[in-house]
Structures are given as structure tokens and as C-alpha cells.
């Protein structure tokens, strides 16, 4: 579900006024990207589901205090998601992994296609693990979660130009490691999105 920034702001305002349907619409727009972001960071689907839901509970609790002030709602929401993931990792002392994304099953493919697809996805996951943590997070937010550079910058607590630089360097590193002309295409295959 794609929706423009003005419509998001109207839904936020309605949610702040107590309209549960408006918050439900925000949930519908952002749940998939939030889940993909969390899943790429925590490793277990059950944890990812719980943490994505916790993010929305925290958003609902904090929504009365949210003020746009030039910060897109999506960036604010992903900052909450990032903090939820950090808290989870600190308490469970787990490392983050992209294996959940890599092991997503595909349908309607034969054994040969599945084996080739699996090998490609493992190559992408390996290349992603070789990025710096900041580069990997920029890629996860931009491609797996589908955020704009401005939203990713807000989520990471960085400047938009810094996030664009991290993304640029990450894509260059992926291009070298994977030996392909367009690593964004490979990321789109793994994340299920295309940008």
C-alpha cells in the first residue's frame, strides 16, 4: 500500500484525535516494512513479529506527543523500531542476522531454480554481512524497509546526506563483492521489493 506524505499526515492527525481506523491505516502502510526491518536485525520470525507489534504499541502510546517538525512519520516510526531492536538485542545478547530474509521460501520453482535462487541469496547475504554496521543498516532501512533517505536518516539519527553516502558506499561494495552491475536488483530479490 503506497500513500503520499500528505495523506500520512492526515492519518497521523486523525490518530492523534483518537480515530482507531486512522491508526489502523497507518499500521497497514507501515507494518510490512517495519517487520522486514526488524526481521533482518533479530533473526527469528517469532521475535520479529513480537517486536514489530511492540513498535506499534509504543507508537500508539507516544503518538499524542509526536510532532512532525520536518521529520516524516515513517522516520519517527523506524526510530522507534530501531530502539525496540536495540533493547531486544541488549537483553537477549544476540547478534543480528539477515538469515530470516535469506531463508524466505519461494513458490512455483523447481529444484534447480530453488538451488540457484538459494545460492544467489546466500551470496547477497554474505556480501551484506561484510558491510560496515552503518552501511548495512542504511541498506536494510532503504531496501528491506523501503524508507526514503530522509526517513532512514531520522531512524538512524544521522543526516540525510550521510545516509545517502553510506548507501552509495554500500552499493559500491556490494557491486564489487557480487560482481554484478546492479546490486539493488539483487537486494530487491532478497527483500521482495524493487527500487
| Share of helix, binned | over 70%
What is the CATH H-level superfamily of the largest domain?
RNA polymerase sigma factor, region 2, helix turn helix motif
Supply the CATH class of the largest domain. Mainly Alpha
Largest sheet: none
Secondary-structure-derived class: mainly alpha
| % residues in beta strands | under 5%
User: What oligomeric state is this?
Assistant: single chain
Q: Per CATH, what is the topology of the largest domain?
A: Rna Polymerase Sigma Factor, Chain: A
Mean pLDDT: 79
Q: How many DSSP-defined strands?
A: 0
Count structural domains: 2
Q: What is the correct CATH architecture of the largest domain?
A: Orthogonal Bundle
Apparent shape: globular
Radius of gyration: 17 Å
| SSE string | HHHHHHHHHH
Amino acid at each position: 500500500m503506497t500513500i503520499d506524505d500528505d495523506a500520512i499526515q492526515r492519518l497521523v492527525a486523525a490518530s492523534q484525535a483518537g480515530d482507531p481506523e486512522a491508526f489502523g491505516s497507518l499500521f497497514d502502510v507501515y507494518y510490512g516494512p517495519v517487520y522486514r526491518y526488524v526481521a533482518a536485525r533479530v533473526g527469528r520470525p517469532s521475535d520479529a513479529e513480537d517486536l514489530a507489534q511492540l513498535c506499534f504499541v509504543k507508537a500508539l502510546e507516544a503518538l499524542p506527543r509526536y510532532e512532525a517538525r520536518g521529520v516524516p512519520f515513517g522516520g519517527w516510526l523506524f526510530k522507534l523500531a530501531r530502539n525496540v531492536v536495540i533493547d531486544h538485542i541488549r537483553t537477549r545478547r544476540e547478534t543480528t542476522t539477515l538469515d530470516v530474509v535469506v531463508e524466505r521460501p519461494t513458490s512455483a520453482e523447481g529444484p534447480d531454480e530453488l538451488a540457484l535462487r538459494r545460492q544467489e541469496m546466500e551470496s547477497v547475504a554474505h556480501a551484506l554481512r561484510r558491510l560496515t554496521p552503518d552501511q548495512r543498516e542504511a541498506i536494510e532501512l532503504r531496501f528491506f524497509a523501503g524508507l526514503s533517505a530522509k526517513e532512514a536518516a531520522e531512524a538512524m539519527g544521522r543526516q540525510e546526506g550521510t545516509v545517502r553516502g553510506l548507501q552509495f558506499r554500500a552499493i559500491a561494495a556490494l557491486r564489487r563483492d557480487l560482481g554484478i552491475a546492479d546490486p539493488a536488483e539483487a537486494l530487491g530479490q532478497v527483500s521482495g521489493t524493487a527500487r
